[in-house]
Write a structure and sequence with these properties.
Length: 334
């Protein structure tokens, strides 16, 4: 009781002093409100200008929560026969103010995580389209979002790829990671995505994955990307092409010549969609002209490659590339 009364008394005293101080306090308040307004008005105007800018330009929003402003103004639709380069094991180096990048091709496929938004901006400024690669069907233990997967959704190890496991492509934890990655692609200004390893059903995955699971997964990825007007590629997965061709915008194929199965991917060309085709000739970067000629011949093992966008690469997908013209170059990497 005593304590309470003392406390009350104390409060009373404070109230008195507050009353006495009312006038200066009011002044102080007015000064604070005035200062706040001074800060808020330019901020609001700045934000308005920023928003207007964001809508008039391609993308690159500052606020990741504003999903309406994220992404391209319209869907990217790559054409049959576009030229390209793919570099995944290193980060390509594009200097500020660069007017050119080597090689001077239409499309660059780069790693979603390892490529800075700044690099993508610079590439787009010199007229390139950028496709962002990530592994959709495998868990990679070194990625920043690796702990977002539920352990129950991870299957067998991938043969020959240390630190990677097949994932249950129907599971919510996996879908949620994919949504975040595609949003990241939009934030970084990617024009397309190249979701790898969607063909777990063809492998010893330990999760009883079916080709229908893959179809559903690819459609899910494409729908998600579509929200940002980002195009989606089908990586390999020849068996499900007829079921997803309408949903995806290009093919990324590895080694169809090596496996004599290029005809499988030709429906893309017929549908007006490019096939980004990679072969890994033994001995690259020293590829004999006879081997190159065979790969580029559209006959024999290469039957079905008409109008494919073919590149010869080393397995590690570094900056080196050779084209069917014989031209070989190395993209600068950091
Ligand atoms: C994969 O995820 C789906 C959806 O949650 C579930 O129905 C299925 O049982 C899972 N498969 C395995 C092998 O855990």
């Amino acid at each position: 009781m005593t304590d309470w009364r003392q406390g009350f008394k104390g409060t009373d005293v404070n109230t008195e002093s507050r009353v006495q101080n009312r006038k200066p306090r009011l002044l102080k308040m007015l000064v604070i409100v005035g200062l706040l307004l001074l800060c808020v008005i330019p901020l609001t105007v700045g934000l308005g200008v920023g928003l207007a800018k964001r809508h008039s330009h391609r993308s690159t929003p500052e606020t990741p929560h504003d999903s309406e402003a994220l992404g391209r103004p319209s869907l990217w639709a790559p054409q049959v026969g576009v030229s390209w380069q793919i570099v995944l094991s290193q980060s390509v180096k594009v200097d500020a103010g660069s007017t050119m990048i080597t090689p001077n091709v239409d499309v660059y496929v780069l790693d979603l995580f390892d490529t800075k938004r700044e690099t993508i901006d610079r590439l787009r400024r010199v007229g390139k389209n950028v496709v962002c690669y990530f592994s959709a069907g495998s868990w990679e233990d070194w990625r920043e979002d690796a702990s977002d997967y539920h352990t129950a959704d991870l299957g067998n190890n991938l043969d020959g790829w240390a630190g990677e496991r097949w994932v249950n492509v129907s599971a919510e934890s996996v879908r949620s990671v994919m949504r975040n990655r595609i949003k990241l692609a939009a934030e970084k200004g990617c024009d397309g995505i190249d979701p790898d390893n969607v063909d777990g059903y063809e492998n010893n995955n330990g999760l009883r994955l079916s080709s229908q699971d893959a179809v559903n997964f690819v459609k899910f990825l494409a729908d998600e990307a579509r929200k940002y007007n980002i195009a989606t590629g089908l990586k390999n997965a020849g068996y499900i092409i007829h079921k997803v061709l309408d949903s995806v915008h290009f093919s990324v194929n590895e080694q169809c010549v090596e496996f004599s199965e290029c005809k499988t991917f030709a429906p893309f060309i017929k549908a007006g969609k490019p096939v980004f085709h990679i072969e890994y000739p033994e001995g690259a970067p020293s590829v004999s002209s006879s081997e190159r000629t065979q790969i580029c011949s559209a006959t024999g093992a290469a039957t079905g490659t008409d109008k494919f966008s073919t590149v010869l690469k080393k397995m590690n997908l570094d900056g080196w590339v050779q084209y069917c013209t014989g031209q070989s170059v190395t993209t600068p990497t950091a």
